[in-house]
Fold this protein.
Amino acid sequence: MIEENSKVIPVYIEEEMKKSYIDYSMSVIISRAIPDVRDGMKPVHRRVLYGLHELGLSPNSAYKKSARIVGEVLGKYHPHGDTAVYDTMVRLAQDFSMRYPLVDGQGNFGSVDGDSAAAMRYTEARLTNIAQEVLRDLEKDTVDFVPNFDETLQEPSVLPSLLPNLLVNGAYGIAVGMATNIPTHNLNEVIDALTALISNPKLRPSTLRKYLQGPDFPTGGIIYGDKGIDEYFKTGRGKMTVRARAHVEEMRGGRERIVVTEIPYQVNKASLQEKAAKLVRDKKLEGITEIRDESDREGMRVVFELRKDIDSTKMLKELFKHTQMETTFGVIMLSLVNGQPKTLNMKDVLTEFLNFRHDVVLRRTRYELDKAEKRAHILEGYLIALDNIDEVIAIIKKSRSVDTARRNLMKRFKLSEVQAQAILDMRLQRLTGLERKKIQDEYRDLLKLIERLKSLLASKALRMQLIKDELQELKEKYGDARRTQIVSSKAKQKSGSLQELIREDQTIVTISHKGTISRFSVSDYEIDKNLIHFSGTDFTQYTFLSANSHHLLFFTNRGRCHPLRTSFVPMINGSSGADLNRLLQLQKGETIVDVHEIDSFDENRFVTMASQQGQIKRMNLSTLSTSKEGSFAVMSLKDTDKVVSSVITSGKNDVLMATAHGMAIRFSEQNVRDMGLTAAGVRGIALDKDDTVVSLIPLTKKKSSLFTVTNLGYGKRSALSEYAAKNRAGKGIINFRVTESVGKVVSVLEVQNKDSIFLITRKHRVKRLRAKSVKLTGRNSKPAALASFAKGDELVDAKLKPQDSF
């Protein structure tokens, strides 16, 4: 019933519905579904990261329960349900969803098989290192803060991200009447495109593909054809065909199996297998005898075993056709620009980000200048007081109150109120000579900083150069290898056959001295053997001709083996490789001593290892295939011992062990029995006090000699005929006469005249020499000086330059 004094306003329901729906639509677009072009985030992502930041959950802090984090975000910034907040945090932690995860999760955060994360009371989280770059300079007035939902707190309207997050991590969202679907990209390539655009703002969107190849998904895969990439670079919209990476392996009895090592982005691996199994049961796919998931910590490996009479190429075509091994990714580059949803092409996105970074740098510079000038103002007051300290003390002593003292100081020395108060607050210890010098040094440094900041404010060119420098630092710190291969339309037409993509293609794997690993196609390597550009102190230490189904065996000083399937080594299309320490997850203090490429775990080959304290161990290569762990122990060591070398032998080789004091012993490997994984080995050489083993060599080459070098750069080359085979566990014979003037032996190599040798110093300096340049002398002859180096440096190792045998 309507009260008599109430006022009723008639409203047409269609107008009210229209207005309310528009309000609702804009709320969904701006506050939920569409990311901001500047930091690449929706409000919930921004609030989760800000909540983690406010809780002090930096990468170096302890993890905190996810329920505590969700409560913080929910209660202070995002009152829309705990599930929404937790699901957002889970996705930010998933390395198969995010190209560069921003949350470091501990516990079950879901899997590529579609498993959901554990309840928030069981998991813990903190920020990742790269997330710090999203929050960088937040406290320096770089962005605007706005009231939270109940206006009791302030939250950032955007994060001052140095990371071009919208492109590197992508975005997905469905709003009212519109949607966004932005793929992930490689950080190195995005930064290359940004720096190119800074240098030349008139670059066309199509030209940017010289720097930014296209999407780079966290799950890898192959983009088949680049027409869709060209389209979304130009218009902001395009469609791409994404395929799983698969190859064919031969089995016993003439059968084959298809092995899938990478799947398209956002495809559920378990659902993929279930779909394929259903097709087999329904007889829509005939010829698959078994589907097996062999994925482990090393990576993904889904196996489809085929009948003997089935053509693997035709079967793979059927899998692409009927399962999610082939998907279409539709790109819609929709994001918020000044609060309005816009579809942007690639140049637009990069330009908006650079404009945002320029605003951030400008605001940060103003903040830092204001802070520096205020501090310099106080220091000027300190210096005046220190120059007149006796008079200052007298004025203070004569003053009846603090206010009087402040006014008297201001009047006598023409100080500001801030300076006078700072002098009154100054502790007596600042009167010492050392403290005075500190104030003078700080003031001098501040004047230089103020001058630099003022020059930044006066020059946009300097600000853009600073942005470029900061982006390059980000690239050097977090850049990694491309994961997704792009098969261009020209290459697609040229290949003409699926077999070109799935056969057991030979590939080149290179590993540098400092731990950069790279994989190339043979054709690319033949065109340019310097595809990876190292710094002056790095070089290629290993080069292997391999194939997808082959393995790399990494043996470490801790007596562990890290097997890595060749197909898991990132394929390189740019100028940088992958960090081997991250790929293998080496423990602190664990270093790689040798790497071997094998095509199979052959029962007729052996791994032989030597330890620093003279132990030697031999294992059948097939023993290593029994372990399913990512890494495993292969030699039990004493706490003070470590592995110095590992070699692959035929079972009939002679081996030679050499020591730092110049001793050497040669014996048949058959004198060392075949042992299991947990064995510690047997005595290979009897060592004198303080002597250690430095090298283990399988003597396999014809017309070879023994090259020995010391830490002081002396070396020689001797004929192998001077080293007769003995029984193991003896003291051996003199290989090199060690003295204080020539130093201790650091490495012994079997060489041929055509070989090149790298001499490596403690400070990573490298000297190259030809083996034939070292004169062949007798075993008891004096060594020659081979290298000289700076004071405090010395040789620590020698390696053979890899030879291209392909």
Notes: The chain has a mean pLDDT of 87. The domain at 605-612+639-669+685-806 is CATH 2.120.10.90 (Neuraminidase). The two ends are 94 Å apart (CA to CA). DSSP finds 20 helices and 41 strands in the chain.
